[in-house]
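Need the bound structure for iron/sulfur cluster, inputs here:
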Amino acid sequence: MRDEFDDNTAAESGGAVAVSEGDDNSVAEFNDDSDGDTLREECGIFAINETDAAPDFAVLGLHALQHRGQEAVGLVSRLDGRLRARRGLGTVGRVFSNDSPPPRGRAALGHLRYSTAGDAEAANIQPLLGETRFGQVAMAHNGNITNAGLLRRALLERGMRFASSGDTEVVFQRVAASRAASLEDALADAATELQGAWSLALLTERRMVAMRDPHGFRPLVLGRLNGAAVVASETCALDIIGAEHERDIRPGEILSISDDGGEESRIVAATETTTVPERFCAFEFIYFMRPNSAFMGLEVSAVRERLGAELFEESHVAADVVVPVPDSGVHSAVGYAAASGLPYSQGILRSHYTGRTFIEPTEKIRHLGVKLKLSVNPASVRGRRVILIDDSIVRGTTMPKIVALLRRAGAVEIHVRVASPPFRRPCHYGIDTPSRDELAAHRFGEGELNERIGGDSLSFLSLEGLYRALGGERGEGRRFCDACMSGEYPTVLADLEAGLPVGRIHN
Ligand code: SF4
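Answer from helper R.:
Posting the output first, comments after.
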């Protein structure tokens, strides 16, 4: 089975993106979410400019970002002004090893992705690499373009050819098709038509470029390692290579760094006449980012502890112990326990060794899955009233099993507390979510959902509590997207309105 491939030649014509055929049979074995009951970030980005061993640093950075995508990884290196790619299906450790190292170079751009099974073909693995009139360009994207289908149609009518089904190639082709004088101008030009979420890193023959969409839905940070610029989705990827976090890439910013270190920055808006409010994904803080990352001046673990403290303020009941659902509920449970004065106990243990089961996800196996991953320590919960903390409820299929495990272990009361507002709407900005009809908080009111879960009580954090934990109020001046919780989408959803698929299809 071949699931890795080199891509040493750029596409020859029409700005088409150079992609190669791969073998996607291995996708199922990397999917450890057999219930489909979690939210999944779709991408992570790491880029480093002009330094020795750049590809090795990039591989390390991608390791630190592995939580942002486990199904495919790619890396483009630059050596003597030429770009070469290696991509494969699977985790970083599987694709890059001593036997299959990344291409050598003094600059590197890496990308991780998660995708739905039908969308996992090798042609969609990033970074995309193509020959354009700006020379060779490699592009890595985190986010989701909400009008990609319409733009794709328009570009096809102009004679452009597509090699993949993803929205990233729509961005690439739109940039390549621009008549602007420079790549940076072409990105600014493309931004006038793109809608939705895009954090981008690009590598060219002479430059590294980073860009965030004007709303700034997805994170992207700038770091420095011995003078070399580093761009990454999260600061945890800077920490792993010993790079300093210099600042966040700003919403709407195009930052271009040449191979001799010269930098140019500009801010673009979605149109020339509108001011676009910042709308960073609140769920990055609730769930997606690694706890040891920081963004917008906020440390992720500290925000999660405040979410737990707010949850205590809003919905405490008499209890004996606070137990998190590992690993997602851990920091909120720490915050809840500190605010309540109750003991914190790791009453549920998560096995980190079950890996993927290589088993078809039939109904029978799905119900076994949680027992493979989670087990209860009876000594922590026997005879006790338990506050059970998780970050969110998606389909609601896992929580009843956890509650049943706790009862079997002797817990006398179980009060489920969720450290985010109810997740009622799909995300269209780069998070893979089930359809609205599959979301538990959309289907059921709190009382009915609690009955289905089997808890003694159930409470979610309020939107106001979420904003207090983020250090602000949910007013006009807010800096966060909360569309999956409030239903207020910050952008037009043009593909959706045109009856074209959005969200999980593109990316
Ligand atoms: S809809 Fe939800 S998950 Fe998507 S960007 Fe907004 S807050 Fe994040």
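Comments: Residues 4-28+40-281 form a domain with the Glutamine Phosphoribosylpyrophosphate, subunit 1, domain 1 fold (CATH 3.60.20.10). The mean pLDDT is 88.
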